[in-house]
Amino acid sequence: MSQEMKLGINSEYSRVDVTASKRSDELLSSVDQSSKRSLLSDQSTDVANSTFTGYTRHTTATVSASARNAVSGSYSLSPTRPTGNVRRRKPSNSSHVKGRFKTTSNLPPLDFGAVGLVGRDTEIATLKFCYDRLVKEGRKELILVGGQSGVGKSSVIRSMENYVPVEGLFVGGKFDMNTSNEPYSGVAVAFGAMCRTIMEAGPDAIADLHQDLRKELGDKSGMLIQLIPELNDIMTVDTAKDPNVGSIDRVDETDGGVDRLRFAFRVLARVFSAVFSPLVLFLDDLQWADVSSLQVLEYLISDAHNDNPLMIIGSYRSEEVDENSMLHNKMAVLREKTDRFRFHMTELMIESFSLSDVEKVIAAVLPSLRADHTVGLAVLCHQRALGNPFFTIEFLKILHFEGMLAFDRKTNTWSWNLSEIRKETVSAANVVVMLEQQLRKLPEQVQALLQCAAYLGSSFSEPTIDLVWSVYGRRIVEKRTEPVSSLLQLVVSESIFETSEKQQYRWAHDKLREAALSLSDTRRDTFQLDIGKTLYYGLTKEQVEEDLFTIVDLINNGNTLKRPEFAPVNLRAAEKARDISAFQAASEYASEGISLLRETVWDKHKSQALSLYTIGAEAELVLGNVTAAEGYREMVLSRSDLSTLEMLPLQIGKAKALGDVELKSKEALEYCLRLLKKLGCRLTWIRPVALPQAAMRAIRTIKKAKAKPQSFYESMVTSDNTKQKYIAYLLSKAAYNAYTTGDTAMYLLTTVKLVELTMEFGVNEFSATTFTFLSILSIVVLKDYEAMERFQNISLFMVKKFRGMHASEAIFVGVHMGLLWVKPLESGRTMATEAIVAGRREGDMVYTNWSIACHVIHLPYTTGRPLQTILEGCPNILAEFEETKARAHILSTKAYYQMILNLNDPLCEKPSVHIGEIYADTKEDHDGNFVHLADKLLAEGELIFWHEEYEVSAKRALQVGESHAKLAPAIYLNQIESFHRAVALYAAAIKTKRGKYKRAANKIRKRIATLAQYENTTIQYYNLFLSAEYLTLQKKHKEAKLKYEQALEAVGKLCHLHHLGLLNERYSDFLQWELSLQKESRYRLEQAIEYYREWGAVHKVKALESRL
After folding, report:
1. DSSP letter string over 514-571?
2. What pLDDT shows up at residue 142?
3. 416 — phi, psi (to 5°)?
4. Which is it for strands 413-416 and 405-408: parallel, antiparallel or unpaired?
5. pTM (2 decimals)?
């Protein structure tokens, strides 16, 4: 149900005194107040207080002291009421009031509160060990506690609440058996409780948390607020704050949804675990968790970026988890991730009571003068209850109620007739049957109310049950219905419900609710449908939206006749699930809605049918079910009564599947071009188009865009043309796939068309990226770096002005394929960080991952950071890419990872060969993927350059030529690749005097000299050094010596360790072979060795040391 219906955190529960009759007073007098307050807490109960209270650590106490120490717990019915499956006999001194249970008034109540947690020392010690390890090591802890219902899992786990210090927080959420399809239910409850705890801490704490969340999430917190309404009190999204900032609707809103949610939940966990240290999160009844909630559990525990102490404890009913269950499969996945994602995982199974445990309970609750009596009753009780703590307590309550126990007030001891007990009782193995039998003894209207309440979830509000009862109650009872308030009062007095100050009610135990559900018998389907309809039509629109999933689940469970009028509610549920990235739920609601459709719906409600099929296809595609998505798509595309625009959402889904999921870039490109043609956007009349033609069109567009004044771009507004938005989407997909397949001509044409589209129809979601691409073309086609910088600045301006832009893509591409040609490489890390943050917020993992790779590997390598530092980051980002199944990024990372490992690993036998434990080259990995081929080419060349003779590297340089630049045009890594080729070529030319090396080296040097006029300080010292090598060839030794020293001074300011080593090495050779300055040469060689050592190139150090 709604969060308000589920929570009610700041109020203690109290029993409602029933004063309507003398008999009710007698009933209540038999229950001591301590026992009443412990109904929810002790070892035998599996009810999670979090659903109602949030387990807030330092606010209102959620569990009384006696309850924490009790062995029994949820007194399913009042302690004086029989609850077992027993041969009935008439008790002495009994009396009866209509609608109430019989009671034995001459016996004192049983005190279970004094028993303590029996037989659980080992389990509690294990939890405390894990907690202490968390505090000591800081490594996250995941503990999964299994056991049968009633064995006391929740009480054992809640014992940790007293172990958490004041600065920490113990908080939890519970999953519900009737709302197991509701996305994120238990997780949302837990985070909602955290939010309320912050709210109680005061305005300063709220402001600090708001600032931390805003810093990470920006304006992307709306999805979380949908899931966690309490977050709205902390985090307010104000889209109208800046009138100069516009907003753009994206064509594909599902794109990146899962990744956005992963990032958002991880940010929440990081921020809260920083405020509360440590943070202990208890998720109860995981066997009922939906797939999205289990995924969030994995997100939180596998977050390698969260260094704060976080412990997640989950409980589950072992009898409901088998090898086919979602939880079983998720546990298997988590076991495989412990080392890679640096968290501990402990699995704990809570077993039933041993005979000695039962004996301890009886000895504490029923003190006797005869020890043999205690042992005998313990043996019988263990047989009857099968060692289950909950059943054990219920069995003792049966004996108490039935008058089978005698109390001696003089000695304050109990006695019993064991033979009589054995004769009169049977096994209590099925507690639900036992409870159902007792519920059937309640008045008819109370039973009816319980049946209604059972379908509302584990908690509900009085207005909600009143609505259901007022509409539906009179249909299931034969007489006039009693007011719901009086019925609730009775049910609370019988310890079936618990209540709070805010008219909130919850079931005292899950088993009670299961028993109430059994009362429906064959009418269960009808109950659910009628209650769902009552809520849907009786609640306000806002209330229905808040409890939508619960209501629709009730309708679907009861709609056995498949009545088509309920297709619209499934559509709304599917839309909401999609909007919060619960794609499994979206798929299921869409599927249910489609199953309710009739053929005539396409004539009368075409929009409804089309939306269901579209959401179904979108959800299945996100889930990786390409075949299912294709089935929905083909069903719609086969119709003749739909327009091209109406079919487009499904058709772009196929383009996305081909390019992003199946990695079939060529097929995706061709499919996009066919769709563009249908929309009247024909890029070329022939295929393939000639590259010169495409280049000429690109040149015209570059000049046209460059001629526009800055005011033109600053005054642009967003496009409201739906058709043009789809065209822009398809052009963007076509451009990406053209780039990855090396189709330069089509890449030029699609980019040019995107620019023309923006200038003619206004800004769309790809406009910033479009001008980024245009900046790249300015380099590739015209070598116009000034135009490149201007277009890139226009792109960044659009990112800031319009929300909804693909910011991560625009920043990454613009910086790493544009600005880093004319700006210092050191500035790239700051921009990469911006791209990472933007990408994670918007769920763009493609460019987020590329930015991460650049931040952790590429930029540190090109700027000569210590190799060991880079290697330390490689496993983390590789694990992150594997988590998101980013195949292209995994291949690229492995290529560089292996390259750096070969440089740094002293045990590597063949460091110049690009094969090892991380990367094993296979044609299937890079066949047709030009970006990966470029990575492979660069890594191979670097290893040969650093480990082989320069002449070997020079020969390879002649062979590969400008292949890297052709495979990955404009990417800044071409700078170091070209520089190292030039160094090897000059070294070989100086040594061999061969012109082929000199000509190739001079060609690269001239290109670098052109770039050196800009602000890239790395290229500037490249130019100085290559000039020194060139002058050496020319025998201009004095000028060469000056250039070497200028280059060394320049690289020294930047502290590029690898090139400090390289320049000193080459300067040493110059001093020795050209000037015969042996002493200076040796000094420079020693300097080279020290820099290489500091960099971490162990094989290079060993090779140079052999020359000393």
Report:
1. HHHHHTTGGGHHHHHHHHHHHHHHHS-HHHHHHTHHHHHHHHHHH-TT--GGGHHHHH
2. 97
3. -160, 160
4. antiparallel
5. 0.74
